[in-house]
Design brief:
signal; transmembrane; elongated; about 450 residues
């Protein structure tokens, strides 16, 4: 624990002390306490954690984190609070942990689970007493769902509260954002786990006994495995996109941060238009990768001093096709590939690479075109100062119908009015962006060139 900040060590110590106090009444209970059930559930949870640690299953992710949570919630419904707090401790203390501060991580994990189980058990038993009889002895739906839902809610809330605190103490997150999203993102899964825990508890108390309760873990394992595979695949997608964007940033450092902002503006348009969440995510990918074709453009042209010749401009205008070729084999991008290819088309047919017009231009490309132009106008570049957001929106409105789709322009304007624009990132050409050497003037587009600037602005 020496590598942890003092505040984190103190926080973990306080959590461990609180967990010990919650479990302390177990020392005073006699033989009448349900020690057999406590031992069985503790052993079961420990075995579940050891399956995750097994070398044959750890590498493949066959047993994802959280798949055995129904065991803890079943313990919260079956056992008194001080015994429920003990169920997770042995398994958490022997669970897989990273090499850095492994002991501290295990102590923290055991303490927070013990506190969450104790709180879940206490609230579940309060509702059980309010019902006047133990619902597990004679299950009556929907009354039997109330203690399970309350236990799952308490379990989730305690974990979220403790996790926010450790983010502040160990990672120095600001207090205003440390708890953001922790409860809402985990509440749904834990309510499902609570239902599975209720099924385990009912079967545990039934004539079939604990062996029947083990059957509940099979569907929970399958569902957790499917979700884990989804998140693993999503992480791989994100890593692919990050690698491509970083490659573009290295090649064309003057647009650093531009791709992320175009992705953000594309999401704003999509949400204003009421698009489905999966399509909104696709448009975010399209915005982030819209300039990936610059990898096929000679670096000397991207960094050239002075105006471009018509021949050089022709090479620059090939970057949408290069980008489409680069991402052609990335199946998860779907419609984003069309946006990458056509984001420099214009409604009047004077864009490139194919001179498409009107609704022949894919909708995704019309979204990204507006987002690209907006960020280009509101970002500082070595050859132009950023325009204020109202001025950029006014310019987009002026070009709507000829250059841009009026519907996309109106959606971005409405979203900006409602939410504002917080770019967060700075381009490499902005003062204070961390560049060691001052940026050289970037090539400008000659007045006689076809309409459409290289950076997407009208």
């Amino acid at each position: 624990m020496r590598g942890l900040p003092a505040a984190a060590r103190g926080y973990i110590g306080c959590a461990a002390l609180a967990a010990a106090l919650c479990a302390a009444p177990a020392l005073r209970t006699g033989a009448a306490a349900p020690w057999a059930g406590t031992l069985a559930l503790t052993t079961l949870y420990g075995l579940c954690e050891q399956l995750r640690r097994c070398p044959l299953t750890a590498a493949s992710g066959a047993f994802p984190a959280g798949w055995a949570s129904p065991v803890l919630l079943a313990g919260a419904l079956l056992l008194p609070p001080h015994l429920a707090a003990l169920v997770a401790v042995p398994g958490a203390l022997t669970a897989p942990a990273g090499p850095r501060s492994a002991l501290a991580r295990r102590i923290w994990h055991a303490a927070e689970l013990a506190l969450a189980c104790c709180a879940a058990s206490r609230l579940g038993h309060v509702l059980t007493d309010a019902l006047g009889h133990h619902p597990l002895s004679a299950p009556q739906f929907p009354l039997v769902l109330l203690p399970a839902a309350a236990a799952a809610l308490a379990f989730c809330a305690v974990l979220a509260a403790l996790d926010g605190g450790i983010l502040i103490a160990a990672e120095r997150h600001p207090a205003r954002t440390a708890w953001r999203g922790l409860l809402t993102s985990s509440l749904g899964p834990y309510l499902v786990h609570g239902l599975a825990g209720l099924m385990m508890a009912v079967l545990w108390r039934s004539a079939y006994g604990p062996p029947a309760a083990l059957l509940v873990l099979l569907p929970m394992y399958l569902s957790c495995w499917v979700f884990a595979q989804y998140h693993r695949e999503r992480a791989a997608h994100q890593a692919t996109i990050r690698a491509l964007v970083q490659a573009v940033d290295i090649k064309d450092r003057y647009t650093r941060g531009h791709s992320e902002r175009v992705g953000r503006a594309s999401v704003m348009i999509a949400r204003e238009l009421g698009m489905a969440e999966d399509r909104t995510e696709m448009l975010r990918f399209a915005g982030i990768l819209h300039d990936v074709g610059k990898l096929g453009v000679p670096t000397r042209l991207l960094r050239k001093d002075g105006p471009l010749t018509p021949e050089e401009r022709g090479v620059i205008e090939l970057h949408p096709e290069y980008g489409h070729e680069i991402v052609r084999g990335i199946g998860f991008l779907g419609e984003a590939r069309a946006a990458i290819l056509h984001h420099h088309e214009r409604l009047d047919g004077r864009g490139y690479p194919y001179g498409l017009s009107g609704h022949h231009i894919p909708e995704s490309a019309r979204v990204v075109a507006v987002a690209d132009a907006f960020d280009a106008m509101t970002s500082n570049r070595s050859y132009s100062r950023a325009r204020p957001v109202p001025a950029a929106v006014a310019e987009l409105r002026r070009c709507a119908g000829t250059h841009f789709d009026p519907r996309m322009v109106a959606a971005l304007a409405a979203s900006l009015e409602r939410h504002g624009w917080h770019p967060g990132l700075v381009t490499a050409a902005e003062p204070g962006s961390g560049n060691v050497t001052p940026p050289r003037p970037r090539a400008t587009v000659p007045e006689a060139a076809p309409p459409g600037r290289r950076d997407g602005a009208p």
